[in-house]
Amino acid sequence: SDSPILCRLPRVTIVGAGRVGSTLAQRIAEKNLADVVLLDIVEGMPQGLALDLMEARGIELHNRQIVGTNNYADTSGSQIVVITAGLPRKPGMSRDDLLKTNAKIVVEAAKNAIACSPHAIFIVVTNPLDVMTYLAWQATGLPRERIMGMAGVLDSARFETFIALELGVLPADVKAMVLGSHGDLMVPLSRYATVNGIPITELLDVATIERLVQRTRNGGAEIVELMQTGGAFFAPASATSVMVESILLNQSRLLPTATYLQGEYGLEDVVIGVPCRLGCGGIENVLELNLSDSETEALHTSAQSVRQNIMKAQEILAMKS
Ligand code: TXD
Question: If you take atom 24 of ligand 1, which residue's CA is the nearest one?
Fold first, then answer.
C-alpha cells in the first residue's frame, strides 16, 4: 500500500502532539521542510493544534499541510516518523523514572507507525531517550541507519549556550559536542569545544569549564525545577528539527545522535549518543573519535547504565504481555 515516495511532498509524522511534538510541527512547517501529521491518543487535541497551525500559514507565508489525527492510517507514506509520545518529568523525577510508562507507549507507537510507513526513518525523542530508542529499534526491526534518538544535539546546544553566556559571545559561534546517554552520565567533550575554532580551554579556566559541564548535565532538571509542570520543549523541538532537516535535505551534518552501536567505541548492543552523519539514508556513518582514557571510561559508564535500564524495560514489557 505504501510506495516509495519521490513524487509526493515530504511528509513527517510526529507521534505525540504534546509540547515537544506540537512545537516541532511548527518548526518543520514554518521552515517549509515537509507536510506534518500530528498524532496523539487524546481526541480532538491534535486536530485543534493542526487547525491552529494551518491558520498561521498566511501570516507565516508558507503552504505546508498540517494534519491532526488519532488514526495511524493518516500517517501512511511518511519519510520521517518522530516519536515524542509519553510522559515528561515532574520535579524530582529522573529520566529513568519514566521507564515504566513510556516503554509501552513507545513500542506501540513504533509498531503502529512502521506498519503505515515501512520506508520511514525514525527519530525517537521520548525519555529515557537511549533506552526508548533501543526499544523502538527492536520493535520495528529496522536497520540501525534508519532509527535514531535525539538528545545530543540538545545537550550540546545547552553546553554551547552556557559557554556563550560565560564568554559573552554569539551562541552560534560556539561549537561543542556532548556524547553518551541523555542523563546525568552524559559526556561533554570540553577539549573539542571551540569559539570559532579557538578551544575553550584557551579561554576559560578548568574550574569554570567544570561548572559549565555540570550545568549542562543538569540542564533538563534546571528547567523542570523552574517550570514545575513539565520539561523543556523549545530547544528540544529545535534540536529535533535540525536532524529532520539534515535527513530531508541530505545535508550530511555531523550531529551527536543516539544510535545502536556495533563495536564502535568498544561498545555493542546498546544505544548511546555518538557523532553521526545524517543524510537522506538516515545515519550515513558513525564517526569514531580517538577518545582519551577518561572520556572512554565515562562513555562506557554511561553505556552501562543504559544497558541496565534496557534490561529493566524488557522485564517490564514481558510482564505486561
Ligand atoms: O532530549 C530529549 N530527548 C528530550 C526528551 C527533550 C525534551 C523532552 N523529552 C521527552 O519527550 C520527555 O521526557 C517526554 O518523555 C517526551 C515528550 O515531552 P513533552 O514535554 O512533549 O510531553 P507532553 O507535552 O506531555 O506530550 C506527550 C504527549 C501527550 O500529548 C500525550 O497525550 C501523548 O504524548 N501520548 C501519546 N500519543 C500517542 N500515543 C500514545 N500511546 C500516547 N501516550 C501519550
Answer: 18
Q: What is the largest CA-CA distance in the chain?
A: 59
Atom 13 (ligand 1) nearest CA: 88
How far from 27 is each of 20, 32, 36, 66, 304, CA to CA, in Å? Answer: 10, 8, 10, 12, 34
ipTM of the complex in this document: 0.99
Residues 6 or more apart whose CB falls under 8 angstroms from that of 286 comprise 259, 261, 264, 274, 275, 276
pLDDT at residue 313, rounded to an integer: 95
Does the CA dihedral 37-321-183-111 come out positive or negative?
negative
2: left (phi over 0), alpha (psi -120 to 50) or beta: beta
**Does the annotation count 300 as an active-site position?**
no
| DSSP character at residue 171 | G
Q: Higher confidence at residue 171 or residue 319?
A: 171
Least confident span in 7-11, 153-157, 256-260, 266-270: 7-11
Whether 150 is in the pocket of ligand 1, judged by its Cβ within 6 Å, is yes
Q: Residues 5-24: what's their mean pLDDT?
A: 88
Query: Would you tell me how many other CB atoms lie within 10 Å of the CB of residue 56?
Result: 14
Burial class (CB in 10 A: 0-12, 13-18, 19+), 232: buried
Q: What are the start-end ranges of the E strands in the chain? A: 11-15, 35-39, 66-69, 80-83, 121-124, 147-149, 174-175, 178-179, 187-188, 194-195, 198-199, 253-262, 268-279, 282-286
Q: What is the pTM of this model?
A: 0.96
Q: Is 82 in the pocket of ligand 1 (CB under 6 A)?
A: no
**How would you classify the pairing of strands 147-149 and 198-199?**
unpaired
Cis peptide leading into residue 128 (ω within 30°): yes
